[in-house]
Structure formats: structure tokens, C-alpha cells
Amino acid sequence: MIYSLNSNLLKTLNIRSLRISFWLQCVFILLLALAIFGPIMNLLIWTVTESWYFPHALPSQWGFKYWQQVFNPYSDVSGSLFTSLLIAVLTVVVCLIVSVPAGYALSKRSMPLRVFWMLLFLIPQAFPNLTVYMNIARLFYDFGLNGTLLGVILVHSVHGLMFSIWISVAAFSSTDPMLERASRNLGAGPFYTFFHIVLPQAAPGLIASCIFVFLESLDEFTGTFFVGSPNISTLPLLLYTASMEGNYQIASITALILLVPSILFMIIINKFMRPDMLSKLGK
Amino acid sequence: MRQTTSPNQLKNHLWLIAPAALMVGIFFLYPLCFSLYSAITLDSGEFTLAHLNKAFELYSKDILFTIIIVLISVAILAVLSITIAALITLSPFRSLSKTLGFLYRLPLFIPFIVTAQMMRTFLAKNGLMNNAFVASGLLTPMDTVSFLGWSGIIITFVWKQLAFSTLLISGAMAALDDSQIRAARNLGASRFRILFQIILPQIVPTLGVAMVLSIVTMMSVLSVPLMIGTGSPTMMTADMAFRINSYGDYHVANALGLVSYCICAGLAWFYLRQNLKEKGAN
């Protein structure tokens, strides 16, 4: 009797504490959502604001005036958008050309000094890179690469190399070596085997690495700031200039243009990139 | 079945890596070494500490400011990302942890410059945050303060890096052996106890990696201090850019760069030492 009373009491206590923790967690998630969506909301509001000043809580005049200004074919934004996309695509191409062979070679466990090479490609992400960028700018100045597309693409590629190599090593490691050997035994040459047997198996991973490099290049600010300016104006540089001039509408619309691919890829990649997969990276 | 490779093939493999290695060497390692060299030599090539002295003389306040900002941000980051990851792993409510798992990842790919622009308007005196406080009656319009400055920099760093560090940490938690947690639960351990005595000790290495990477990122971001940090003191990255763009003074800028490497190296060393100590104790 006493026992069952006790266990009943325990059960109610348990349920009550569960309920409290449920509501606590709900409040935490709500606060986090507010903290995440608040700044994004503010950005969205600024894109459709025509005038907004103290002490108005919300814009006093709404409208799409600045959108027309931005998407005018002669505006700075369309030019920068084109430059940014061109640089990003070419950076992806450079990274692919360099990292596909390297990733394939490093996926072989028997590769001598494999850990050393992997760490070498990690270095650009492991040092504060601002100092490096300003010295690259000085170096490029001597070769006339400052303010050229090629210079900016090179800087972006080195920055993206870590992603492309590490991800393509993972991609090539997951291919089946027996298929490769079967193809060779049946008389196919090494190049034929690579392009028809190995590459198709690694393609999904390589595409993921391209997405990473593309985003990194699209969003890169510091390197372009030192190497590209003032001749090359990418979207981040334009955003920065507009924001520093207090032109928040243009800055916010530019930011929104940069935000779209980021969120889009996040949602696409959300399916592939689970945390437990990430812990296998680099093994 | 092990794959055997002849020495000849290995040589071929080295050729495959060469372009990538050359790129890193020429466009990263060489400028890196050059910055170290330039920080401690005169134009004529003689060794000198004058640039370092000058850097400390002019910017010691900013160096201290940078260290404090980075440390506070990392501390907040660690607490928040452990909380979120623990909720995802341990929460008994599947739907809540699923929502949380989607929510925290949203800022993962949002670029720093966009975050800086968002925060520049959000945290301002007339920003949405203050307006929301005023509208809800928590503040009067006269009490509002602008968060642009050191607190704004910290908020921006945490907002942006939270997704990355939580992703790493919840990954480490998901990779843990599930049976340990279940055994502890069956023996009557509370969720808090499981977190502090079973999960946390095992994910310390990942936590360290996430924090060191976050520190390096914060030390190299230029857009946030330029756009959010108004006035003085400011972060070292802004000083370096100023030194170059206004004076063309590479020596002092590189000396500041050397200091920033040392800060990162110092924090990384601290982490490694803690790690070794714990391994030694066991």
C-alpha cells in the first residue's frame, strides 16, 4: 500500500518535472529563434524601407524604390554580382583542377607522408589569414596582379583549397577499390578507369566540395579587400562600401542577394550533412 | 585485401599532389614567412625589435581589447553550443530536439559580412532589438543604448560561430557510444549528471578543436570590427588594415600580425597542455 502510494507520488513528481523541463526547453528554443530571426527580420525590413528614423519603431515609408535602383542594369550592384559570380565559378574550376588529382592521390592509404600533406592543406584555415592577405597583396603588386581578376581568383582558390581537398579525399576514399582493379584487369587504361569508374563514384562528394568553394568565394571579403580593390568590386566589397556610407537599403539588398545562396545550400546540404557524418571527415 | 603499390606508382602520386602543394606554398606559406620576416627586420635586412615595440606602444590597448573580446566570445560560445548540443542529444522530447537541430544550423553559411550588416542595423540605437524592447514596455525610448562597440562585436561573433561549433560538438556527442548513456540512465543518473560526468569528459578534444578554430576565425575577420566596432579601442585586424591603407607601413602591420599569431598559438598551446595534462592524469 505504502509502496504504491510512494510510486504514485514519484510518478506525479516525475511528470511534473518533465513538464517543467518541456516548457523550459520550449522557452530556450523560442529565445534562440528570436535571436536568430531577429537580425534576419531587421535586414528584410531594411530592404523594403524608404525612410526610417528615430523614434519610429518601424519604417515610416515602405516601398521598393531601392530595388529598382539596385536592379537597374547600369547600377554597381549588377556589375558586382556578375564579377562575384564569375570569380566564384572560376575559383571552383581552379580548385577542382588542383584538388581532384590531389584528393585521389591522398585517398590512397599507402601514400607516403599522407598526414603531412593533409595538414599542409589545413594550414590556410589554421592561421589568422589577414596578415597573409596583406603580404600577398604586396607580392602581387610587384607582379601586376593586384586589382586583376586572376589575383583575386588565386587568393580565393588558396582559401577554398582546404575544403575542396579534404572533401574530395573523403569522396575518393569512399569509392570501391575493387571496381577500379577489375577495370584495370579487363584491360582499361588508367585514365579510362579514372574517368569512367572512379570519378562517377566520387561525383556527389566533389559536387559538395564545389558548393563549399563557391560559397566561400562568393562571401570572401578580406582577401578581395586587399588584393582586388579598387579595381575589382565584388558583392561583399560593395556591401561594405554602401554600409559605411550609411546607405543601409542598398547594403541590405546586397546582403539579401548574398544570403539567398547561403540559406539555399544550407537547406540542400542539411539532408547530406548530418553531424555524425562530419565526425568521420578526415579519417 | 591490402592494396599494394609499386614505388613507381607512388612517384606518380606525388606528381598529382604537386600543383595543390605548390599553390599553398607560393600563395600562403611564402607570404606567411615573409610577414614574420618583415616584422622583425629593417628594410636593410638587419634584425630589430623596433617594429614590435612600436606596435605595442601604439596598440597595446587594442591588443588587450582583442584578447578580452575573443576570450569572452569563446566562453559564451562554449556554454551555448554545449547547451544546444546536450539538449539535442539528451532531450526526451524528439520534436523539440528536431526543431532545435534545424534552427541552430541556419546561420552556418551566412557570411560574416552579411552578419555584420544585419547586426549593424539590428543592434543600433534605433534598431529592431531596441524597438522591440520599447514596444513591449521593457524600456523607454530614452533608455535605449546602442550595442555597436565591444558588446556588438561579441554578439556578432557568437551569432555567426554558434552554428559551426554546435555542429562539431553535437557531432561528437552523436558519435559517442549510446550504451554508456543508456547504462547510466538505467542506474538512475540524472540527465545533468550524464552530461557532466559521461558526455563532457569524452568530447573535450572536439570542444577544443571547435574553440581553437573559432578563435582563429575571429582573429582574422576584418569586416566585423570595421562595421560594428565604432571608435577606439578596436580590434587588431582593423588596426592592421588601417596601418596598410593609410600609411603603407607593412613593418608595424606585420608586427601586429606576429602578435596575433602568438595569441592564437598561445591559446592553442593552452588547450594542448590541458589536454595532455588530463591524459597524463588518467
TrEMBL record, chain A:
Main location per the UniProt record: membrane
TM segment ranges: 20-46, 81-104, 116-136, 148-172, 193-215, 248-269
Keywords from the named record: Cell inner membrane, Cell membrane, Membrane, Transmembrane, Transmembrane helix, Transport
Entry coiled-coil feature ranges: none
InterPro entries named among the record's database cross-references: MetI-like, MetI-like_sf
Entry's Gene Ontology BP terms: transmembrane transport
Membrane topology recorded in Swiss-Prot or TrEMBL: Multi-pass membrane protein
Residue stretches making up the ABC transmembrane type-1 domain: 81-269
Leader peptide range in chain numbering: none
PANTHER family in UniProt: INNER MEMBRANE ABC TRANSPORTER PERMEASE PROTEIN YDCV
Family listed: Belongs to the binding-protein-dependent transport system permease family.
Protein name: ABC-type spermidine/putrescine transport system, permease component II
Automatic annotation (TrEMBL), chain B:
Domain ABC transmembrane type-1: from-to ranges: 63-271
InterPro entries the UniProt entry points to: MetI-like, MetI-like_sf
Any one Gene Ontology cellular component term annotated for this protein: plasma membrane
Domain of life the protein comes from: Bacteria
Pfam families, A to Z: BPD_transp_1 (PF00528)
Chain ranges passing through the membrane: 12-37, 63-90, 102-123, 147-176, 197-230, 250-272
Presence of keyword Transport: yes
SUPFAM superfamilies: MetI-like
Family: Belongs to the binding-protein-dependent transport system permease family. CysTW subfamily.
Stated name of the protein: ABC-type spermidine/putrescine transport system, permease component I
